[in-house]
Design brief:
The strands form four sheets. Strands 4-3-5-12-6-13 form a six-stranded mixed sheet, with helices on both faces. A three-stranded antiparallel sheet has the order 10-7-11, with no helix packed on it. The chain has a two-stranded antiparallel sheet with strand order 1-2. By secondary structure, the protein is α/β, with parallel strands linked by helices. It has helices at residues 3-15, 18-25, 29-43, 59-86, 107-117, 130-139, 149-152, 203-215, 228-236, 281-292; strands spanning 48-51, 54-57, 91-98, 121-128, 144-148, 158-164, 168-173, 193-197, 221-225, 242-245, 256-260, 269-274, 301-302. The chain is rod-shaped and about 105 Å long. β3 (91-98), α5 and β4 (121-128) form a beta-alpha-beta unit.
Length: 304
């Protein structure tokens, strides 16, 4: 039994005419008669009574029509929803955002676009640490994540695209003694305590900072924060200095000083997803993100 056979039967049963049904189905009347005959043989049921004046449904045929109409409608509904999902008009997209990252210039316009143009799409935003976002991405619990380039550029099977090219800064409370200076360099930080994110959460970040400090002739004293939120708290409390990128929400805090510096890595904000994630909403979200951020021709990169 096929969906097409079901459609043929329903059309004949509702029109009670093979000739009219054949016209509606755009097939020949003899071909339609053969389909119905094959269906009766397959089901071992007599579906129609053929008379000199036409055809009538048998009781078994009437019961089959009631059931098949429901099944056929449910089939069409499911197919219709599936087509909308494939076209990016329906479904759910879970987006992770690195905690303490400023996304105010693009996330709200994207959300409003989907709310107005694709009301059947559910956008779910979740904030988290480096490790949490990457773990969730690999587990398939998140579709896309906003994070820093050095976190994903060497991660297997991860595809990423630039969102905003950023620079790194030496960061400290405005009440720190060094904050009175017009310019602060790494050479000024030899005797300072650095607040870094824990290696358990993001080994790349601390390794990069240690490396550039060694290039400037010193090994930093370090307090490791378990999360970015804790790191930000310690910096605003004056417990140490750190190196953070332009997109950190601390950039908006008047009680914190940012001093631009040259680093050996790229701290730009990127959006990343697993190359085996086939959620069609990824492409739709990326298209709108590029429009809002006025990004043209940005290449996609695959982690090593």
């Amino acid at each position: 039994m096929t969906i097409m056979q079901m459609k043929y039967f329903i059309t004949v049963a509702k029109s009670l005419s093979f000739t009219k049904a054949a016209e509606l189905l755009f097939i020949s009347q003899p071909a339609l008669s053969r389909h119905i005959k094959n269906m009766e043989e397959e089901l071992n049921l007599q579906l129609f009574v053929r008379t000199n004046t036409g055809i009538k449904l048998t009781p078994a045929g009437s019961n089959l029509l009631t059931g098949f109409e429901k099944i056929y409608q449910e089939f069409n509904d499911v197919v219709g929803v599936s087509k909308k999902i494939q076209q990016g008009m329906m479904g759910t997209l879970v987006v992770g955002i690195l905690e303490k990252t400023d996304t105010s210039d693009f996330l709200a316009p994207i959300y409003q676009y989907f709310a107005q143009k694709h009301p059947n799409v559910s956008l779910v935003f979740r904030e988290g640490s480096f490790k949490y976002l990457l773990d969730e991405l690999y587990a398939g619990n998140m579709d896309m994540i906003f994070t820093i380039k050095f976190e994903v550029e060497r991660k297997e099977s991860i595809v990423y695209q630039y969102v905003a090219h950023s620079k790194d800064h030496i960061v400290m409370s405005k009440f720190h003694p060094l904050a009175q200076k017009e310019q602060v360099t790494l050479d000024d930080l030899k005797d300072e305590t650095f607040v870094m994110i824990s290696r358990e959460d993001n080994p790349e970040s601390s390794d990069l900072i240690h490396s550039i400090c060694r290039e400037h002739g010193f090994v930093p004293q370090v307090h490791y924060a378990q999360t970015l939120s804790e790191q930000v708290l310690w910096i605003t409390s004056g417990m140490g200095v750190s190196i953070l990128d332009t997109r950190c929400e601390l950039k908006l805090n008047d009680n914190v000083k940012f001093y631009e510096m040259e680093s050996n890595w790229d701290p730009s904000l990127v959006i990343a997803w697993h190359q085996n994630n086939y959620n069609p909403l990824i492409a739709e979200f990326l298209k709108k993100l590029n429009e809002v951020m006025d990004i043209e021709g940005e290449d996609l990169h695959v982690g090593e």
